[in-house]
Amino acid sequence: MKITQISIFIENQSGRLWEVCNILGENGINIRALSLADTSDFGILRLIVNDPEKAYNILKENEFTVGKTDVIAVEVPDKPGGLAQILKILRDNNINVEYMYAFVERSGEEAIMIFRFDETEKAIEALNNNGIKTLKGEEIYKL
Amino acid sequence: MIWNEEYETLPREALEALQLKRLQHLVERVYATVPFYKKKFDEAGVKPEDIKSLSDLRKLPFTTKQDLRDNYPFGLFAVPKEQVVRIHASSGTTGKPTVVGYTKRDIKTWAELMARTFQAAGVGKGDVLQNAYGYGLFTGGLGAHYGAELIGASVIPISGGNSKKQIMIMQDFGTTAISCTPSYALNLYEVAQEMGVDLKKLPVKVGVFGAEPWTNEMRKEIEEKWGIDAIDIYGLSEVIGPGVAFECLEAKNGMHINEDHFIVEIIDPETGEPLPYGEKGEIVFTTITKEAIPLIRYRTRDITRLIKEPCKCGRTFVRMEKVMGRSDDMLIIRGVNVFPSQIESILMETKGILPHYLIVVDRENNLDTMEVLVEVSEEFFSDEIKKLQALEKSIEKNIKEIIGITAKVRLVEPKTIERSQGKAKRVIDKRSL
């Protein structure tokens, strides 16, 4: 199951990250998970939010450079070796992880990881074949 | 197609004889009628009778844009005001506008030169020309208008702007040719896309583009998006307006300069010394037929190169390459001449579109540094850091390969580079020398 991630180009300047979050907050967008990747000049903020379509449009209206990417959300057993088990499946199927980050919070027996693959379909298939659950967009956005 | 076979294919010798006769007549006339020229010639110690051959031209002093400003508005006019039937002016972004006038005969000459231009682009009787150059003080609109009417094309004098209407008229009136600035052509393409109109399905076959410097990459982009031939033209209001030089459809390689009306030189912008054919320098014009405001050795500040090899279209006029930039824009970085247009070409090649950019030149430890800020549009953006870094690296590599200097490319957020209403500001030079 693919879910939509919003990514935003941000120059490394104080206050820019706040501006993004503030615009989203004022428009009732709730951030479910995030990751910030950066270089010395710029960063890319990646977000999973409750309403990706709306968030995308609002950011565009505010003249941010924003992109939409398909990522997948995977339930990872919250115990030692849980993530390794998932990564082994990927390794065995020759699938490369472009990047990954953890979901902010969830109470329960499973943690949730967000993965970005270059071959998303192939990754979903491999995980599902090995009994790993990938979450639907609606499930994630509403969490 | 050649509009004026007799003059446009004149053998070199006859052309030069004609130029000399016209030049001698002009020099006598301005010496007698324009105090500014009399004073300048006297200071340079040259009399009209000293012009015995074309090479004597270099004895005459240059005329600059500043001279036009100093004599604002009509001080350089060589005829009484009652003979002036039209007045145009440049935008005057950096001060008072430069004012130019036309007699009845000047208007006729101008129409003839633009008729040559359109005919060379394959536009003729039976064509429907949508003229989207601005009408008004700017010379583009009316210059193109009179020329197109002279060849018998049906002219739509729509002027610039109002883009949705432009597209509607293009569809409804069966436009076959368009004239406007190249950047407006790309703008119109975007509007057509928003309206769901495929320009390639319209009968437009050719565009006649000028009034701003543009690159061959931009030509390719326009030709692909519109499905037309894009023809380059050159002119400046001081010399006459559009119609100074034009490309032909057959070769699309350099613009034929209307040498029966303008004598052209290429000079070293630093020393003012004339350069031989084929060398890059500042292009200088002497208007040998203009009545109202003739100019002697007018320094355009435009940097280009002349092509003397005969063109396959049969015209004998010398050609000028696309303008590479302006001598006042030229940067010397670590001894290398760099024009913003070169950076522009490299950026266009990278993604097929031209992002907003800014060149920042500075000096660190006595060494020039160049940084190119590039706005990240959606076409450039990726959610992966490594792709963005690869983009920076590939632009840096191309700059190194093509221009030969090391530059740092930095991606910045959209709209962070200042927009200007007129010509874009592309360079910030922080060096204090």
TrEMBL record, chain A:
<dbReference type="InterPro" id="IPR045739">
    <property type="entry name" value="ACT_dom_pair"/>
</dbReference>
<dbReference type="InterPro" id="IPR045865">
    <property type="entry name" value="ACT-like_dom_sf"/>
</dbReference>
<dbReference type="InterPro" id="IPR002912">
    <property type="entry name" value="ACT_dom"/>
</dbReference>
<protein>
    <recommendedName>
        <fullName>ACT domain-containing protein</fullName>
    </recommendedName>
</protein>
<dbReference type="Pfam" id="PF19571">
    <property type="entry name" value="ACT_8"/>
</dbReference>
<feature type="domain" description="ACT">
    <location>
        <begin position="71"/>
        <end position="143"/>
    </location>
</feature>
UniProtKB/TrEMBL annotation, chain B:
<protein>
    <recommendedName>
        <fullName>Phenylacetate-coenzyme A ligase</fullName>
        <ecNumber>6.2.1.30</ecNumber>
    </recommendedName>
</protein>
<keyword id="KW-0547">Nucleotide-binding</keyword>
<dbReference type="Pfam" id="PF14535">
    <property type="entry name" value="AMP-binding_C_2"/>
</dbReference>
<comment type="similarity">
    <text>Belongs to the phenylacetyl-CoA ligase family.</text>
</comment>
<dbReference type="InterPro" id="IPR051414">
    <property type="entry name" value="Adenylate-forming_Reductase"/>
</dbReference>
<comment type="pathway">
    <text>Aromatic compound metabolism; phenylacetate degradation.</text>
</comment>
<comment type="function">
    <text>Catalyzes the activation of phenylacetic acid (PA) to phenylacetyl-CoA (PA-CoA).</text>
</comment>
<dbReference type="InterPro" id="IPR028154">
    <property type="entry name" value="AMP-dep_Lig_C"/>
</dbReference>
<dbReference type="GO" id="GO:0000166">
    <property type="term" value="F:nucleotide binding"/>
</dbReference>
<dbReference type="GO" id="GO:0010124">
    <property type="term" value="P:phenylacetate catabolic process"/>
</dbReference>
<dbReference type="Pfam" id="PF00501">
    <property type="entry name" value="AMP-binding"/>
</dbReference>
<comment type="subunit">
    <text>Monomer.</text>
</comment>
<dbReference type="InterPro" id="IPR011880">
    <property type="entry name" value="PA_CoA_ligase"/>
</dbReference>
<dbReference type="GO" id="GO:0047475">
    <property type="term" value="F:phenylacetate-CoA ligase activity"/>
</dbReference>
<feature type="domain" description="AMP-dependent ligase C-terminal">
    <location>
        <begin position="335"/>
        <end position="431"/>
    </location>
</feature>
<dbReference type="InterPro" id="IPR000873">
    <property type="entry name" value="AMP-dep_synth/lig_dom"/>
</dbReference>
<dbReference type="InterPro" id="IPR045851">
    <property type="entry name" value="AMP-bd_C_sf"/>
</dbReference>
<keyword id="KW-0436">Ligase</keyword>
<feature type="domain" description="AMP-dependent synthetase/ligase">
    <location>
        <begin position="18"/>
        <end position="285"/>
    </location>
</feature>
<dbReference type="InterPro" id="IPR042099">
    <property type="entry name" value="ANL_N_sf"/>
</dbReference>
